[in-house]
Amino acid sequence: MNPILEVSKLNKSFGGVTVARDIDFVLDAGAMHCLIGPNGAGKSSFFRLLLGEHAPDSGAIRFSGDDITALRSFERIRKGISVKFQVPGIFKALSVRQNLEVAFQHHLHGASLGGTIRRVLEFTNLTGEAATHAGVLSHGQQQWLEIGMAVGVEPKLLLLDEPTAGMSPDETRKTGEMLHELNARGITILAVEHDMAFVQQIADSVTVLHMGAIFAKGSIDEITEHPGVQEIYLGAADE
Amino acid sequence: MRRLELPDASEAPARQGLRLWLSRLEGPQTMGRGPGFWVAAALAVAAAAAYPAFANDYVVGNAAYFLVWTFMAMGLGVVWGYGGALSFGQTAFFGLAGYTYGVITINIGSAFGATWLALLLSVALGGIFALLIGYFMFYGRIKGVFIGIVTLSVTLVLETFMAQTAGPQWRIGEARLNGFNGMSGMPPLTVPWFGGDVLLYAGTTLYYVLLGMVVLVYMGLRMLLNAPFGNVLVAIRENPERAEMLGYDIRLYQMLAFGLGGALAGTSGVLYTAWGQYITPSSMGLTSAALPIVWVAVGGRRDITATLLGCLLVIAGFQSLTIYGSQYALIVMGVLLVFTVLVTPNGLIYTAMDRVGRLFGEARR
Ligand SMILES: Nc1ncnc2c1ncn2[C@@H]1O[C@H](COP(=O)(O)OP(=O)(O)O)[C@@H](O)[C@H]1O
Ligand SMILES: [Mg+2]
Questions:
Q1: The complex's ipTM?
Q2: Which of A159, B108, B260, B270 is deepest in the core (most CB within 10 A)?
Q3: What would the pLDDT profile of A29-41 be if each residue is shown by its tens digit?
Q4: Which architecture characterizes domain A30-55+69-80+155-239 according to CATH?
């Protein structure tokens, strides 16, 4: 397989807090991979490093073969990355339709823009909400809107930070199906997730992050049976 | 399997070219849509056009003076209301363009439509200067209140500089800058015409020219604000980090909006100078710099129509109060600003339009 994302020796600290410690991480094109780890492990920070929101202290990030370490966020996005953040990053004062317009108009125009918006509205069950201000949607609907914003542009790599937080089991399952569908169309997916049932549903393999470093890597069965992994989760729960 | 990308064959063909732009006269970024709104707008323009028939030339010239300022107000509306960057220094571009108009026209005269060339060059210079300031601010990641501080500093520096140009050595060609007393003697806008140039002194003809310009700029801005550019600008105001994570170079958008605001402030500066054949450094001073913020805040910064109407209303009010003394009028402006911020933070006109729109159920979104 050819890798779409190659992270090597990535380090980042904020004062005394190390959020990334010598991270080496390779993601194959076409993979569906999950990143897990206790709260504060550095999962969201890892995404922010990938996206250029934080500059690493050292290390390199390659995407589709290009070194993107020095690129600005918007330049990385334009190379074919899209992201759904942990905290819904929608434009609350804009209507649902405008949110989607802003998300897609960079890549799409005219009829294909209108068509994509219509389909994403349908897909996310927000057709009736198109004219509603995004800020008044329910938490679950905001999640869907942001997922719609992230997937409508058909990125090469989709980063999802806790996509199912606050969703009902039904919605969670639907999200999983959607991710499979996207993956079948060639989109590589990297998701941070807590819900192990969901991880089981979507991921081929899992990476465990702990205190900013990669702790373990493997299939889901390997990881769930890994005694050390159980320990760090329990340890984190004890705090 | 549902597909998210390719359009259906059944998709309506996209509007293109002029029709696409005309369709953007209405949209989520501007209040007012449907026949009701446009009939009201046409009636307002018709009333403004009929007005000179009922007033003498002096009074009409005074009304033209109100129109002069609307461009700077609409520009600030774009920069602040839509783009989220509160500029305290639009008067820098106003003054720069006004002085430039004076320098050019005093040197090359007004024959063959030269005053219009001077207008274009001066407005362009105002815009370019704003792009430059915008470049340093936005690419330097200056944000929030610091934008106000930087822009205010720029206009005050320009004021201070111009105020010390009294000596005879401060001249550009024929044009004396004249320090604190200001520059005068430039020609008004002049239209070349058969049998002799038409000089647009403050009066009915100038009023019509300005009215036409206001309508054109207002419609142009409506289209721009409802175009992808306006969408992104508003998205940046709402959540800049997210906008960047959708692939937009937010610094570029903010800089371009700031340049547009500068060009519009420059338009007001040129028209002001041509209207009274006069400009002084105090047009870039603290009081002058604060007034556009009052107009835009009181009218409503988040809608271009509210900004335009608010500006006209506040200036007309200010003008009638000045009869009782300009200090007094300024205090009333201050009170009005505080009242607006506390009671209708979105602006008086904006709130009123919003209410009316809800009543008719068509003016909004
Ligand atoms: N900008 C920052 N400044 C200082 N500390 C930070 C910053 N961002 C994250 N952290 C810290 O880094 C650690 C990892 O955070 P985060 O990446 O959000 O973890 P996770 O997403 O795995 O729960 C936490 O202890 C958090 O407090
Ligand atoms: Mg997190």
A1: 0.90
A2: B270
A3: 999 999 999 999 9
A4: 3-Layer(aba) Sandwich (3.40)
